[in-house]
Amino acid sequence: MSGILIREVEYRGETVDLLIDHVSPHIMHDQLTITRVEGEVPGDVTVIEAKGLIVSKGFYDDHVHFRDPGFTEKEDLLTGARAAVAGGYSSVTCMPNTNPVIDCAEAVSLFDKRWRELALPIMVYTHGALTVGERGESLTNMWALADQGVFSLSDDGEPVLDEQLLADALRRTTSGNFKTSLHCEETPRSQQKVREVLGEGKPYEREPEIIALSLKVLADTPGNRWLHFQHISMQESVRLIADAKKRGLNVTAEVAPHHLLLCRDDIPLRNGEPDANWKMNPPLRSREDMLAMRRALAEGIIDYIATDHAPHTPLEKARPWDQAPFGVIGLETAFGACMSLVHNGDLSFDLLLNALEAGDDLLEASQHLITGVTLIDPNHVWTVDPDKFYSKARNCPFAGMTFKGKPMYNIANGKILMAEGEVLF
Amino acid sequence: MSRRSLISIRDLSNSAILGLFDLAAEFAAQPRRRLMLAHDAVMATLFYEPSTRTRLSFESAMLRLGGQVISMADPGASSVAKGETLADTVRIVEGYADIIVLRHPREGAAQLSADMVDVPVINAGDGAREHPTQTLLDLYTIFQEKGRLQGVTVALCGDLKYGRTVHSLVQGLARFGAHMICVAPHGLELPEPFRRTLTAQYGVDIAQYHSLDTAPLGGCDVLYVTRIQKERFADQVEFARIRSSYQVSRKTLERVREDAIVLHPLPRVDELDYSLDGDPRAAYFRQAAYGVPVRMALVAALLGLREVPGFQQPGTSATPASEAFHCPNPRCVTQSEPGIPARALVSEAGNSRCAFCDAEQEVVCPAS
User: What is the per-residue pLDDT across B33-91, written as a single tens digit (0 to 9) for each?
Assistant: First the structure.
């Protein structure tokens, strides 16, 4: 197969024919070149009739949990990759809270080995842990991690409350390209420490205070280090981040689709108490918070969407609210859910694509290499049925909802990985 | 699984260790004589990491027992460079030798090898986990030079947090009822839970100090010195500042008793002043030399060439853990060797621990 021809697809309001070719740039994965075709169509190509579809770069999710190695009953790199492809993604980065934790060079090699063994057709990267074992005690060797290609650190799942530790971490990151990502939420394990460091407060509503503490450390650290805030959910957090950006601090933020679409009043009951498939950290917030997240994304205070795809086994999520683990999946519903915001006017389509890290410069540079291409049907109406998910998990709060808009084709690594909504590997 | 291997000092009971010491003393009494005890036997030394002195010590021990040695000392030049697994290598070497001595950078490598073959395997160091023959020769040195282990006071100085040698020795000393004085910089102390478990379990005193100047060295029978690696310190200025307080000099020795001994697992950098070498208390070269008779005794016992009372009883036995287990240690041998199913035992704390590398699984479910 020497190329894929996408006929009559919509790109920036125009209908075009695009030829996708794959190149092997001598690194781990084949990438694609994409060119506009005028006139003569080359023979020996696979044709996709894309009338009515919109073309986009493949989406990127900076925050997923594929539970591999160590918790593969919930998800593994293969099923996670399938879920990502189904959602229109062509690359994702996993959080390091696996078993073993990805906190040293050997663990990164382990992860890379898994990726290679499974011959995954999309790029699945990993963040490195900020502290050894994510225990919050001693910093990992970030230069060893950088040698393995890891430039982003996070102790996702636990907040960093030790100012000295955070300051040391930031000082050690050698440039603005090294990202420190923070999970600024209270957790069961950190409840006591939160009280010690921040005093008393409303449980699980400490996000703005923890963000403020982190911003203070960042402001005191010379050298324009990069701090990223994960899954923002409260309006006060948005205010702090907007202010930090205005002050010139190198700060970015992400939001999850569930915090854009749902609020705590929406949580249904199951057997008389809240349905644990709607339980995550940070939890669903007030309606005002939800609307504030939409505005913040529209205004660019929040930089991108990240699903925090957090699979758990159906058995675990069937437990009563207090006993069930935190987390909901989101790769297969992210686009459909967020299209609701486009349909109701809160967000422009272009902005949504930008937020899914699939910005519009698909055809810009002639030698532009891209990871993948997604073809979207903006009018496809579908109902979310978790039993049809490619993920092993089913813990999705959007179950039963109807969305308009779905990725139908996903092309990466020179191959069509999904056609007509069906994943092909 | 071989009839007997030495993977950990835990594999030997106290009486087995004392039995080995008796046999070692017998061999040490005629140090330059070549015996014919092992004349039919071949030892294979498989060193995936260089450690010339340990390897030479084992090889000398085998030769003095009258045995022969074949060795792999350079993994770069061998099939290992072609990607052959450890499991395959030991199964092949099993056909060439009667006893295998293994040094490997991954924790659990020795246990894995012992599971794979029917000949005895001696762990000469597996990653950061353990180096049991070093512990044996350290204990033997003290036993030989002081006449006993029970009630002896040992001062341990240097990196007591990361030193693999130290943890094994401290455990061995506690088992035999020796008291300890620990001297380490802030941040490199003997881990407190470890110290507490030992004092509770064996009823010995283990005191912590942060400076050689303040530690009561006058009461110790043995001063065991270890190196502090500069790589442990992010701040090299800090390292330079504190290292002098952990260097043993002539002045330090003035406070130590005349009948005490100074030990060091070697190699030394500058924590033991060269001017001390002439002092009769400096026993570190004798300590290294004792490695040969101790290893001779161990090999003789493992090959069944000499009866060592108590040797056949296991030191400790552990119950297998029943739940599914994923080893949390990225440097465990199970992560790099294909086709090794994870195996867990129940640890003393009641958690599951990896049967190969001892890593304990604490976290059950990710926090989000």
Answer: 889 999 999 999 999 988 889 999 999 999 999 999 999 877 766 666 677 899 999 99
Q: How far does B363 lie from chain A, in Å, by closest CA?
A: 9
pLDDT tens digits, residue range B305-347? 999 987 876 666 778 887 778 888 999 999 888 888 888 888 7
What does the alpha-carbon distance between residue B30 and residue B28 come to, in Å, rounded to a whole number? 5
Domains in chain A, CATH or no CATH each: 2-54+360-423 (2.30.40.10), 55-355 (3.20.20.140)
Q: Which residue of A has its CA nearest to B325?
A: A70
- Pick B368's closest partner by Cβ from A102, A133, A310: A310
Residue with tokens 């260089």: B50
**C-alpha dihedral over B85, B87, B90, B93, to 10 degrees?**
-70
Is residue B367 within 8 Å of residue A157, measured between CB atoms? Answer: yes
Which element (helix H / strand E) includes A121?
A: none
- Per DSSP (E only), the strands in B55-134 are 68-72, 99-104, 121-126
Q: What is the ipTM of this complex?
A: 0.74
Q: Does A52 touch chain B (CB under 8 A)?
A: no
CB A37 within 8 A of CB A15: no
CA distance A103 to A131: 7
Return the structure tokens found at A268: 């249904």
Residues A316, A312: Cα–Cα separation, whole Å: 6
pTM of structure: 0.84
Chain centroid to CA A159: 19
Q: Which amino acid is at A260?
A: L
Which residues of B have a CB under 8 Å from any CB of A? 234, 326-331, 335-336, 361, 363, 365-368
- The domains found in chain B, sorted by start residue, are 9-131+290-302 (3.40.50.1370), 134-288 (3.40.50.1370), 318-368 (no CATH)
Between CA A270 and CA A285 the distance in angstroms is 19
Quick one: tokens of B272? 């033991």
